[in-house]
Amino acid sequence: MDKGNYSRVPEFVLLGLCSSWELRYFFFVFFNLLYIAIVLGNLLIVFTVISEPALHTPMYIMLSNLSVFDIFLASYATPKMIHDFLHEPKTISFEGCMAQIFLLHVFAGGEMVLLVAMAYDRYVAICKPLHYATIMNLCTCTGLVVGSWVIGVMHSLSQLAFTVNLPFCGPNIVDSYYCDLTLVIKLACTDTYIPEVLMLLDSGLMGATSFFLLLISYTVILITVRRHSSAAGMAKARSTLTAHITVVTLFFGPCIFIYAWRFSNLPVENILSVFSTVFTPILNPLIYTLRNKEVKSAIHKLKTQYVTSRLSSQLSLIRLDLLN
Ligand SMILES: *[C@@H]1O[C@H](CO)[C@@H](O)[C@H](O)[C@H]1NC(C)=O
Fold first, then answer.
1. Backbone torsions φ then ψ of 162, nearest 5 degrees
2. Ligand 1 midpoint to CA 153 (Å)
3. Cβ pair 202, 191 in contact under 8 A
4. What is the mean pLDDT of residues 10-14?
5. What value does the mean pLDDT take over residues 81-102?
6. Does 194 map to a domain?
7. 48, 145, 146, 149: residue to mutate for ligand 1 pocket, most atoms within 8 A of CB
8. Are 210 and 112 in contact (CB under 8 A)?
């Protein structure tokens, strides 16, 4: 590629999620409320886990780290999408576009690895209960959390490495509400076949590896749970497992469809992208927290503890709202 011979596009134009003006007002209000709920719901998990010593176990520490990923995953593109509902033209600078691509892959990659780490934690707890304390100490837990960030960043850098240097010289219309790598890469004024295949392999390998690790660990766990179905602790294990498997399905389901469909240009992909960046982050706090007795009682404890202070009483109103 000859980099000296063209002038790079200064910005990209996003077509957004929908073109009807009436729907845009509705979406503006709807996604605003949803975004606020995502941030508050996930912050609630983080603060509950941090302030309740009984929840300082690997499972809950990873859960609150998952909430941090969720907040980031909902924040790299959604606020701009909400802003863009009421603004024309929807443009994004070249650098902004690359930043969105980078952040998406850091957070989505990191979240995948963390979901695998959480499955591993449940695998050790259920299948090797006698060794749990020695295998899953706080040190291992920190290693898994740091590892998910490192893998996320490395995966993202490898994706960007062959994107930023492509010649973007003319077409700059992205038919989405954010800079999606699979769409942006097609705009380069060069044969993008090899970069597209590399990108697909990179993301596909990352996704498929995590997905199969999850599949294996949950299968082993389910078989173990089934074999010991008489034990009292297994009912609890089963409800935790249901929560995990629901979240994993909701996270990977849309991802798989996006990648399968992206190369056949069907309109569903925008809806699925919204699903993984907006609905998964709100579902995590709902599924993990509101169905989990320990988290519920920790929230209740917090609520009664700080009910006198003004800020906290406002927060507890929000908690009440969320619990009802
Ligand atoms: C995330 O994990 C790290 C390492 O285990 C832990 O120290 C930290 O408190 C966690 N963060 C949150 C918000 O829970």
1. -100, 15
2. 18
3. no
4. 88
5. 89
6. yes
7. 145
8. yes
Q: Are residues 41 and 92 in the same domain?
A: yes
Q: In what order do the strands lie in the sheet with 173-174?
A: 91-93, 11-14, 173-174
Count the domains in the chain: 2
Specify the pLDDT at position 227.
Answer: 78
Asked if residue 2 has pLDDT above 50, the reply is: no
Residue 142 near ligand 1, beta carbon < 6 Å: yes
Domain holding 305, by residue range, is 294-324
CATH number, position 22:
1.20.1070.10
Q: 1 lies in a domain?
A: no
Instruction: Find the 61 Cα to ligand 1 centroid distance in Å.
Output: 5
Same domain, yes or no: 286 and 302: no
Does some domain include residue 4? Answer: no
Rg over CA atoms, the chain: 22
Q: With a 6 A CB cut-off, is 144 part of the ligand 1 pocket?
A: no
- What atom of ligand 1 comes closest to residue 67's alpha carbon? 13
The pLDDT of residue 309: 54
Residue 1 is predicted with a pLDDT of 44
Together in a domain, 164 and 229: yes
pLDDT for 143 equals 96
Is residue 265 domain-resident?
A: yes
Residue 304 CA to residue 237 CA, distance in Å, equals: 29
Question: From ligand 1's centre to the CA of 299, what distance in Å?
Answer: 18
Q: Is 61 in the pocket of ligand 1 (CB under 6 A)?
A: yes
pLDDT for the residue numbered 324: 46
On whether both 251 and 170 belong to a single domain, the answer is yes
Average pLDDT, whole number, for the chain?
81
33 has a pLDDT exceeding 50? yes
Same domain? 34 vs 159: yes
pLDDT at 233: 62
Distance 260 CA to ligand 1 centre (A): 34
Could you tell me if the CB of 145 is within 6 A of ligand 1? yes
First to last CA, the chain: 58
Rounded average pLDDT over 224-231: 72
